[in-house]
Amino acid sequence: MIYPYICPKCDNNFEVIKSVKDIDQPENCPSCDTISNRTISRFQAVDSTAAADWNNKTYNPAFGKALTPQQAKKEARARNWAEVGTEPPEKIHKHFAKQREEKEKAKWDSFNLNLGEVKS
């Protein structure tokens, strides 16, 4: 990791690459050799809740932007859009099985009617 340091004597800003386990060890300034303490960079100072929120966002092509799941639901409700694909699979299978049975029954009924006309 890269850690920023500032020298208390000469105000020199410098960075040191070192292991996370050595994070608390002070470093010597390369200019004046004074012991310097680690500072917090702008990147490290980012609000952790905002960073966590950003990590949960995914691009949603329906809205044309990156949203968290909660934001996507709010946006969909605001546009009066219905969420699809949330039905349990058992319900979907049951629906299509019923349709297949009705289609087969109709096919057999028409076949039996045609046979009845041929016989008479």
General description of the model:
- The chain is of the alpha+beta class.
- Among the domains are: 2-38; 48-78, no CATH class.
- It has three helices and six strands; from the N terminus they run E-E-E-E-H-E-E-H-H.
- The protein has a four-stranded antiparallel sheet, with no helix packed on it. The chain has a two-stranded antiparallel sheet with strand order 5-6.
- The chain is rod-shaped.
- The chain starts with a strand and ends with a helix.
- The model has no long low-confidence stretch (mean pLDDT 79).
Spatial sequence of strands, sheet with the most strands: 2-1-4-3
H and E order: EEEEHEEHH
Through-space gap between termini = 91 Å
Low-confidence stretches: none
The total of beta strands comes to 6
Which strand-content bin applies to the residues? 15-25%
Compute the number of helices: 3
Largest sheet composition: 4 strands, antiparallel
> What would you call the shape?
rod-shaped
Give the C-alpha Rg: 34 Å
Overall mean pLDDT stands at 79
Helix and strand content put the structural class at alpha+beta
Q: What percent of residues adopt helix (DSSP H or I)? A: 40-55%
Short structural description:
By secondary structure, the chain is of the alpha+beta class. It is 41% helix and 18% strand. The mean pLDDT is 79.
How is the secondary structure organized here?
Blueprint (H helix, E strand, L loop, with lengths): L1 E5 L6 E5 L9 E2 L6 E4 L9 H8 L2 E3 L4 E3 L1 H10 L10 H31 L1
